[in-house]
Design goal:
There is one protein chain. This protein is of the alpha/beta class. About 30% of the residues lie in helices and about 20% in strands. The strands form two sheets. It has a five-stranded mixed beta barrel. A two-stranded parallel sheet has the order 1-9. It is elongated. The chain starts with about 45 loop residues before the first helix and ends with a strand.
Amino acid sequence: MSAALPSETFSGAVPGTLPVASTDASPHDDSNDGDVPVAPAPSDVWKFELAAVTLFFGGLLYLLISGQYLRFVTPRMGWCLYVLLLFFALWGLDLAVRKPRISVKGAVSKCLVVLIPALLIMVPHSAMTGSSFDKFGGNTPLQIHFVSDSGSAAGTPVTVDTKSNKIPGLNAHAKTITISNANFGAWYDLLQAQPTRFAGYTITITGFVHRIPTMLAANQFMVARPLMTCCIEDISAFGLTTELSPALAAKASTTKQLTENSWVRLSGKLTTTKSRVTKDTVAELKISHISTSPQVTGYFYR
């Protein structure tokens, strides 16, 4: 006597075989058992990456054409920006030609890397500048030339008039030196390289007041200008150490003129002293006259 079949059977099943699961379900049907296949990345995501690259390219191109890049780096670093500009041009061209299928997460991460520097470029530099002396630099670079004058050792850094072979501002007969704004850096280098050569000369110079309490006495300060080595992040003050005479130091008007970062025009005798740090002989200006001065825009670089 044969056994009865179960009351519940699969439609179309062959007796003695296992039932076969249906294959009609969509591969994206959430009702399926097991892992759900990941949907392909949207085809237009690359456009957002291209927009970010284009924005950065445009901002960088504007800085180069307008010369505003000189607010951030010295002219010697300009070639690096042109290389970067070429890189972003090729990146954008590659995106436009290939139209790659990329994930949203990947595109967002790349866009952030590009957009943050681009936005920083678009923000006016004055909005990012604090009270430091980097605000005096502007986009006016002044190169410190390395040329030998006729009376100094070869290689002494100084700007000279090539026609007359004289150092601008020097009057050897009267023993005076009037340092112009453009030649501040050249004269600084020459006076520090040969401090005894010009000892006793009366020097007139313009700069801003910069104090270094750990290196200078209370009656001393530096008459300084901005110096940029590479970029705005390393901009610093450089200049001659000056010392007030007791008579000037006692005047209340002098104290008002000598606030940090205030611009002054000084005159005084050049002397020599020992550096507190290196113990080398350095130039120092004994101030006999002081007056306020308009701010001078520009930074020096070598």
